Amino acid sequence: MRLLLVEDDRMIGETLLDVLRSEHFAVDWVQDGLMADTALRSEHYELVLLDLGLPKRSGLEVLRALRARKDTTPVLIVTARDALAERVAGLDAGADDYVLKPYELDELLARIRALVRRSSGRADPVLEWKNLRLNPATHEASRDGESVSLSAREWAVLEALMARPGVVLSRAQLEEKLYSWKDDVSSNAVEVYIHGLRKKLGNDVIQTQRGLGYVMPKP
Amino acid sequence: MAEPDESATRPGYSLRKRLLASVLTAIALAALLQAGSAYQSALQQADEMFDYHLQQMANSLRGGLALGMPPTGSDEDNADYAIQIWGPDGVQLFRSPRAALPARAVLGFSDVLLNGAWFRVYSVQTPYQTVQIAQDMGARQARARALALRAALPMAIIAPLLMLLLWWAIRRAFDPLERTRQQVAARQAEDLSPLPERGLPDEVRPLVQELNLLFARVHTAFDAQRSFVANAAHELRSPLTALKLQTQALERAQTEGERSHAFARLEQGVDRSIRLMNQLLVLARQEGTSQQGNAPQRVDLLPLLQQALADALPQATERAVHLALQPSIPAWVEGDPDALNILLRNLIDNAIKYTPANGHVEVQVTAQPAATGRQALLTVEDSGPGISEAEHAQVFERFYRSQDASATAGGSGLGLAIVQAIAQRHKAQITLGTSPRLGGLRVQVTLPALD
């Protein structure tokens, strides 16, 4: 799950980056509006955490430009600007949700999950596929009711595939979801995680489409 | 709150009432004076006229008055008169019916008291007879008064009319003032829009114009204050959000390593909040009235600068920035040493913060001649990225952070605003430019120097 964090305050950014990473998100962090614009044009994110008061280009401008490109990436505005007019302006400019600083971390994470769920068209917060259950809120994975321990990356691969059964995801697409800019990506990393998942969940869970990528067939 | 001004609580006076009172009093006095003098002169004239009348009557009688013939005129006319005529031998020839006059008379005019009533008497003597005519003073005065009153009457009628007219005119003249008063009175506290200046008399317009200028100034100050509070609240939110996040991250930390990492961050967050608070306090003090600061005194900038440099040295060393004092001379100025110290520290700290490792920060204090006496010249220059011309005006705004440096420096955005506030209190000028030697920012502060 790849996230773009747009936050100009260094302390908030650093701490949030740590927390989001520990929540199994692949996070890119930019500190001004211009960088945010560039990142949004070049990469695909599942969600954007957007501050409004940014140097060089305001968050609102970044958001308007994003929507003008018909980009539907969910945007969660996280800002200290609490005036009603600003909240309305933010939502009207195309934001999906609005969180005021200072916020509760748990609430912020819950809103992130809700937005991701909604944008993928699901109502149920828990992902299910045959006998597998994946709870993004608690990071619990279970098979036939028995808990399975997954690494953060394995979890991310499984979540991406389970979210859209029957859809083939290429290795590049999976890598994009797994890694932020900072990470070194080894050439066979995805294969390693697929291998690990098959070992823990069974060989029939993830199918390889030769030359195309990986898929979990519709149950 | 200061004690309310006594004159404000005293029942005030009204210009209109004052004007009315003085004008109406003047009219009343003038009318009284005029009526009085008209009355007096009418009385006098009537007196002279009656005397003349008496004389005429006496003269007409002394000629050839037939014995026993009543004097001229009708009964009514003569009701007030009494006539006696004597022959040359002192025999009374004629005596009008109601005459009760003394037998002897002084020739010419005289006033005689007879039976409790005064009479005006005129006597004239010819070789043949003596004629004496008397007039009842009571009746005579009553007639004179009637005449005099008639002379004073027009003033008595005109004066009240004039007063009424003036009262109305003065009321009208004060209408614009009253209108303006009502407009001001009806205002909400936050309504600082200008009052209409049209249709106001010359006496009131300048006042309203000054009021409008004051409104504009208050409006600007009010806006600045409001945006400052809003900005301050916003700026406080970021460090507090960071603190909250840091505590929650600390709570989530699983391993000992994560915990100590999170704890170190939390400490940084607290430090930053304290720093911001202090900066806000300093700014509030420096921007407040001069009463809050120390009384101005003679200060030498050189030792102040040396002390500021010594204080900033650890920070410079930590960031591997070379800090140096250029050849300087003592420069005496009038000011608050604490405030000047803050100014120096802020400028030096700023320079250190924006200068990359192994860069240079140099400071100097000299003096130079100026249009008005001598100036102390304080220079702080660095080898940092500098500030673009376009940003020169903005950097003194509170909470403004350089667009390029915002991520790296992480300051409160108040440093230069504080410097500006202190400079203004000391009548000092701040000039931003590029350091010719170091290539970075050069800040020059000129202060009026003492001898």
Give a summary of the structure in a few sentences.
The complex is a heterodimer of chains A (about 220) and B (about 450). Chain A is of the alpha/beta class and about 220 residues long.
What would you say this structure looks like, in words?
The complex is a heterodimer of chains A (219) and B (451). With 219 residues, chain A is an alpha/beta fold. Chain A has 8 helices and 11 strands. Chain A has helices spanning 10-22, 33-42, 59-68, 84-92, 105-119, 152-163, 171-178, 189-201; strands at 2-6, 26-30, 47-50, 75-79, 97-100, 127-129, 132-135, 140-143, 146-148, 207-209, 213-215. In chain A, the strands form 3 sheets. A 5-stranded parallel beta sheet of chain A has the order 2-1-3-4-5, sandwiched between helices. In chain A, helix 2 packs parallel to helix 3 (59-68) and helix 6 (152-163) packs across helix 8. Chain A starts with a strand and ends with a strand. The model of chain A has no long low-confidence stretch (mean pLDDT 88). With 451 residues, chain B is α+β, with helices and mostly antiparallel strands. Chain B has 3 domains: 9-173, no CATH class; 205-284, Helix Hairpins (Orthogonal Bundle); 295-448, Heat Shock Protein 90 (2-Layer Sandwich), CATH 3.30.565. In chain B, 52% of the residues lie in helices and 17% in strands. Chain B is built from 11 helices and 12 strands. In chain B, the strands form 3 sheets. In chain B, strands 2-1-5-4-3 form a 5-stranded antiparallel beta sheet. A 5-stranded mixed beta sheet of chain B has the order 7-9-10-12-11. Chain B has a two-stranded antiparallel ribbon with strand order 6-8. In chain B, strand 3 (108-114) and strand 4 (117-125) form a beta hairpin. Chain B is rod-shaped, with a radius of gyration of 50 Å. The two termini of chain B are 40 Å apart. The chains are: A alpha/beta (219), B alpha+beta (451).
